[in-house]
Amino acid sequence: MSTVLLAGGAGYIGSHTAVELLAAGYDVVIADNYSNSCPEAVKRVEEISGKSVRTYECDIKDSAELDRIFSENSIDAVIHFAGLKAVGESVAKPVLYYRNNIDTTLSLLESMERAGVKRIIFSSSATVYGEENPVPYTEEMPRGTCTNPYGWTKVMMEQILEDAARADKELAVVLLRYFNPIGAHPSGRIGEDPQGIPNNLMPYVSQVAVGRREKLTIFGNDYDTPDGTARRDYIHVVDLAKGHVKAIGYVLEHSGVEVFNLGTGTPYSVTEIVDTFEKVNGVPVPHVYGERRPGDLPESYANADKALAVLGWQTEKDLSDMCRDAWNWQKNNPNGYNK
Ligand code: NAD
Ligand code: UFG
User: Fold this and answer.
1) Are 185 and 191 a contacting pair, CB within 8 Å?
2) Nearest to 157 by CA among 119, 129, 111, 124
3) Catalytic site positions
4) Which of 2, 116, 150, 262 could pair covalently with 243 via S-S, beta carbons 3.0-4.6 A apart?
5) CB-CB contact of 268 with 257 (8 Å)
6) Atom 13 of ligand 1: nearest residue by CA position
7) Contact 193/336 with Cβ under 8 angstroms?
């Protein structure tokens, strides 16, 4: 069976993807510097899967470390999750974001070339559709204008990977544009563990529900949407992880560049998320309405037809599953991996 290197594989999406790849029979190697994760997440991946995972603590920018990983393992494909992802922080520290996110990509591509590894899947984002494109987003739409450096790193890395594949006809690149991953593995053993005050909606909702935060502020209720709050395409992280298993199957058999949206195609508003979370879990989520958050779009959701047609992938879990599993993770791990 093929071996897949997960760069940034100890993180939220990487750890769930590791579980699904192992369940599908792939061997997995994880490389992570734990800048936004911890070794405990990998231990729990091993616990869930009953398999051991070779793990390297290293910076993906470090070419010598990468060369060592490629020489010590027979890697067939790489999934590149390793990146900084906090939108607000990227506005305050743009150079850090460009350095980390672009350099990890360049170092990986260079080491892959030296090792003769020709297959890479990249964690891109719906943010590359920018402000200009109408929803639902389809893959052939042009990349748009981003409102923050984080988004621009994704645009630039897509461009770098496309150019690399144009120059090397043997290179196979799959760009996965994630929408809004939420929820956790149903075991409650792995999940999203943000450092400090969460930027994203679902971890904030969960931390309010568990009593770590006093109340949620809903950013804007005067959008041109059915209930006035912004709408997003929330996707269960296990469905997203299974999308990577399909994408690995694809990238092992094809060359060139292919882009896929990984979303459900159905948007939900902030209010619908809060209401569903309260209803399925039977816990209150105190909330108030506040100003719009700068840079937020009123709506973002996928047309998910291409991933179904080409990869045979579609989501299986609904919003109740997402809210139930997010809460199951939070209440069993009120302080994340720090117990
Ligand atoms: P995460 O922070 O949980 O995981 C990223 C992992 O990469 C972390 O374990 C971190 O320690 C590691 N990392 C970062 N820089 C590194 C470096 N230089 N060397 C080694 N390891 C490094 O985030 P996630 O939510 O799992 O996201 C994974 C990828 O998906 C990221 O590239 C992110 O931008 C992208 N993405 C995430 C979302 C989302 O909402 N979570 C949406 C769209 C795209
Ligand atoms: N929201 C609140 N209160 C909060 C947090 C969020 O009302 O405390 C709202 C936001 O205003 C937005 C929605 O909840 O309307 C979702 O916000 P998130 O921060 O969870 O997600 P975003 O859609 O803003 O951002 C996500 C990823 C980014 C990615 C972007 C576009 O976090 O990495 O999708 O793909 F760039």
Assistant:
1) yes
2) 124
3) 150
4) 262
5) no
6) 82
7) yes
